[in-house]
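Methods, example record. To illustrate the input and output format used throughout this study, we show the complete record for Chromosome segregation protein SMC. The sequence lines were provided to the predictor; the line carrying structure tokens was produced by it.
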Amino acid sequence: MNFVEVAVQNVRGFSPAGRFSLKTGYLVLKPPTAELSPLAGLSLALLYADGRGGDAALAASTQKAAKAALTLVGQDSVTYRVLRELGGGGSLHRLNPATKQPELVTQDTAEANQFLRGQVGLPPRTTFEQLFCLQAVQLPSRRPRGAGRPASTSGLRAHSSTGMPAMRSPTSPGMAHSAPGMSISSPGVLPASDIPAAEAKVRELEKELVLCREVDNLQFEVDGLNSQVFDLESKLRSTDGLKEKVREAEAAWNAEPTPESFGLPQDIVARAERYPRTLARRDEALARLQSEREVAEEEAQRLPDVEPLVRNRNFWIAVAAGVGFFVAGFFFSDWGRYVALLDIPAFGFAAVLAIRYVDELQDKDRLSRRGEMFVAREKKILEEFEAEAGPVRKALEVFDVDTPKEIPLRLQRREQLGAEVAQLRAQLVTMEKHPEFQEAAHQLPVLRKQIELLNAQISEKGAFVRDLREVERELARLKESIALARNPQMAGMGMGMAAADVAGGGMEPLEDPGPLVLGLAGDLLATDVAAVIGMMRERCVQYFSALTERRYVGVEWDRDGRTMVVTSSGRRMPVGELPPREVDLFFLSLRLTVVEKVSARVKLPLLVEDALVGLDESRLPLLGRMLKHLGTLTQVLHVSPHPGLAQLSDGPVNL
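The corresponding predicted structure is encoded as:
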């Protein structure tokens, strides 16, 4: 998950109106004035609205409405936009991936909160605030000494520096059940003025506490199922990269030119391969034709010129002799008439000459027709060659190559892409047929149905249910006020003990941040504290040792998360007994370690808001580099006017 854009209007600490784009990495957000921009508070107000209107305090001016919007990409890779009028209502929108247009999800605050936790992947408010919002007020040195509080939803409690269980704060539920006379009044708790009304309020709070516990248990189940859904969706999304490769390969394969797209025949590759043989066959046929033509021309040259029959003297003599013998036969009588028969050989000789003339004409005509036949055969040879080789020559022009051998290489790219597409499709089918993938696809709708049923049960409990710890604190304070009203000496005893403590110079150790932070990290990762400790120890030592200039070389936790640090001299001591600034440095080291390790499984933006103010100036560059390293793992948004940190960032944003 990461924030994409923040838009504000009349919000304290920001420009009067503006839209601020946020990219991934380590970003330093520069406030417009000396007042730091309440980015963490604004984000909590938008993402975890309680419907009470308390977020109106973020308005810069009460004269006009304050509005804010936050655009984020959820764990489901969908873009959402939360819009809210601070102190009023709001709406949740989702960007449709197909139409690229926003769609309204809900305008109901409770439904929006449930949707953001269930579908978008937001953790509970306490987890997000204590792990991913880093503020100066959270530093142990800036919190009241001994003001312990419930460590996490897993039930961890803070312990004293002696290793024995520390006394709970009067604001905790355990203090409300202390024996009379043993309780010490908390600062600001006054005796109840109306004990019956206070007892009635206690009964109401106890009923509300039962309801809150039921809702908290249901929400815990929903969070566990959401964690499983996220894991299953991660398994199903494991094929997204391969699907994207398949789409890219198919697009490249479809974009690659085909023979048909250039008007070439389908078998252009085979034609290009046959082209040398086709060319050789044409040359051979033309050579054979040329040889036959030369032979015919030699025969034609050997033939004498045909003399026209009308110019043949022998023909006319034979004809004249035949006519003469025929005519002479009319002038003789008896046997002399037989002279007329001599016209037969005369006319026969003339006929022979005529037939010979016709034969010569036929031979001449035959030779002339052979020339036409040679022309027709040559035309046919060239046409057949053109039908076979014409597309090849066109391909040479289209592909801008010099020889037909380069044509298959030019078209081979498409064949390779086709083979690659087939291989990727086979890999995708194999992954989707894997038993784990199919089991995830089968379980996902079942878990989502269970989440819907649990969310329906939560909705039946009420549109808005307060946080369990808030009800416990209010109930404890109310019971204490009743106890003080019934036994006024308890207040005096508490003041006397406090005065004696101050007079004796005794100071309680600072609160150990380990149980709270490690417990919340375990809840978020759905594992126990022991597993979280094994995951965090080495990296936390590296951060803490670097920030303290190697004065501390080790960090140890017991099974409840209580922290012992090891000095460079080998001394072991509870972290709460360290100087306040060094407790703060341990707190920062632990928080940075948790964000780094958790980001490997759940990516949430880290909001750093004035948490580094008051620390040694010499440590700021080192802390800046640490935050920049975290920016490579998840989005880090750091509100700071410090110019040196802006230079270290991936890009400053002017608010």
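Annotations derived from this record:
The CA atoms of residues 42 and 58 lie 7 Å apart.
The two ends are 22 Å apart (CA to CA).
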